[in-house]
Amino acid sequence: MSANALYFTGERTVEARTIEIDGPESDELLIETEFSAVSAGTELLVYRNETPSEIAVDETIESLSGEFSYPMQYGYAAVGTVVGVGHDIDSDWIGTRVFGFNPHQTRFSAHPDDVVELPASMSAESATLLPTVETATNLTLDTDPRLNEQIVLFGAGAVGLCTTRLLSEFPLADLVVVDPIETRRTLAAALGADTVCPPGQLDEHVTGVDAAVEVSGQPDVLDDAIDVVGYGGRVVVGSWYGTKRAPIDLGGRFHRNRIELVSSQVSTIAPELQGRWDTDRRMATAREWLERTDTDALVSHRVPFEDAKRAYELLDERPESAVQVVLTY
Fold this sequence. Notes:
Layout: E1 2-10, E2 13-20, E3 29-38, H1 42-47, E4 78-85, E5 97-100, E6 107-110, E7 115-117, H2 124-127, H3 130-143, E8 150-154, H4 158-167, E9 174-178, H5 182-190, E10 195-197, E11 209-214, H6 221-228, E12 229-237, H7 253-256, E13 260-263, H8 279-291, E14 299-304, H9 308-317, E15 324-328
Parallel strand pairs: 8-9, 8-11, 9-10, 11-12, 12-13, 14-15
Antiparallel strand pairs: 1-2, 3-4, 3-6, 3-15, 4-5, 5-7
């Protein structure tokens, strides 16, 4: 059967294409999409042609195979309703609302093990933020917040705001969120930040902190994160910069202060946690905290799927006006 799918066809160019989809196969579900969330981080790198072409799109998600090269589908936050099943699947699945790590398209097939069944209390739109909260959960685990610590978070986009929400639950001395956009700083304060400030005013608030979390998406901000932590402090890098580069100063206090740089990437769990944490536990934790987060405050724009081009132009040209953009079907 056919579906309409969003394709990145060139730099700053997207278009909807009619595709044929297999399924549902005997062991699959057929899902009609209701909403899908646009990642202002990774998807903008794809949109701007700022992704490394030599690496796989995502080796952990079956629907995101291949490499970063045009034309390509991308996206990983689709929510819809099961409308059909293969003959080996219980018909009780029909009518169930599920989340799937699938690119933006009007319908898709998936194995039951590859979707997350959603509680009736969770709206379809809210559920599109599940991977965002899962990323925030991973960042929080990698940050390892400790009693009475001072933590600075750089970047109050959707991931940064959800990470703020989780970190605010810990008994920290101070949680500082740094972002140049006033509306995002206001959201960060509402989600539990103790202190918010624009980048130029950071020095008057903090120095020598215990940990910094870098989720701005801007490689030059990594220098600010390194500068703000104290001796033995840790810097957790959650941003993926793609092909963007900036000079990082590792010749000054970085070595003498024994600063630790920690990579946090949601496709894997830190080796030291894998004895107790797996992706199922992390997803269950994310789902719990998604239900405890005011996602209405995060969704700034709802754009019809057929106007998806407008969604990417908005995020690319006027990022100060948007937080989370959701496509509606």
